[in-house]
Specification:
2 domains, transmembrane helix, ABC transporter permease, membrane
Length: about 120
């Protein structure tokens, strides 16, 4: 039953990812425009160059806003990745898991409290 769920969820996620292919390409192009605008704005020395690169970056931001449905496609691609890892019985981690243990405020508070009360 678990494998059937993985197959069904994978098929649905693949259909969603393929249907969002257009907005994904537009979103990637928008990200490229924003990157080029920011990168070249920092390197530019002339006033006209700075205005041009800022306007190009703003065009990229506005086109990225219009391609917000691409986030659904990105979530579907992420779901496909997680399902693939789970299908192969691999652990799914995003970043270092030790950071999450160190970031637990209650553990740090208990350790500090133990030091103070000794």
């Amino acid at each position: 039953m678990k494998k059937l769920f993985f197959i069904a969820a994978g098929i649905v996620a693949a259909i969603v990812a393929l249907s969002m292919l257009g907005p994904l390409v537009g979103f990637a192009f928008s990200a490229l425009l924003v990157y080029l605008g920011l990168h070249n704005y920092v390197k530019s020395n002339s006033g006209f160059g700075k205005v041009f690169w800022v306007s190009l970056g703003l065009i990229g931001v506005f086109t990225a806003i219009s391609n917000i449905p691409a986030l659904v496609g990105l979530a579907a691609i992420l779901l496909i990745y997680v399902l693939y890892k789970k299908w192969n019985n691999e652990e799914v981690t995003f970043g270092k898991s030790s950071i999450m243990k160190e970031a637990d405020p209650f553990t740090n508070f208990e350790n500090e409290w133990a030091k103070l009360t000794k």
